[in-house]
Amino acid sequence: MARTKKRVLVIISLVVALFVVELVREEMVYLYTGWFLQHTYWQVRPGMTKEQVRQLVGEPESVVHAEDGEHWVWSAANHRGLLFKTLRLASPNGHYELVVTFDDQNRTSDVFAGSS
Questions:
Q1: Is the distance from CB of 76 to CB of 95 less than 8 angstroms?
Q2: Closest CA to 72 of 44, 94, 95
Q3: How many domains does the chain have?
Q4: Structural domain for 47, as ranges
Q5: Most buried of 16, 30, 62, 66 (most Cβ within 10 A)?
Q6: What is the pLDDT of residue 78?
């Protein structure tokens, strides 16, 4: 009986440890993404082409067409992991975003970065 209790305790401990490790991993991915977006903000320059921006930042997570141009959006919020979302540990506000606006010549005309 004591052996069974030890095995159950070990299994429960392993499950809890894996859970904690996954939460830490998800947080690290989220923080890295926010840092990456902050870092690339300073590298996006007026007049850059879409291809130059794509090479620098990657594919946009969303594209919004508006009267003032086309907006490419990247958000650290999209990099919250499944556990954070499932357990509702992720706040809906305060995530770092990068928004690059392109003019009718398909060149950058404006860059915004900050928390949503």
A1: yes
A2: 44
A3: 1
A4: 2-115
A5: 30
A6: 81
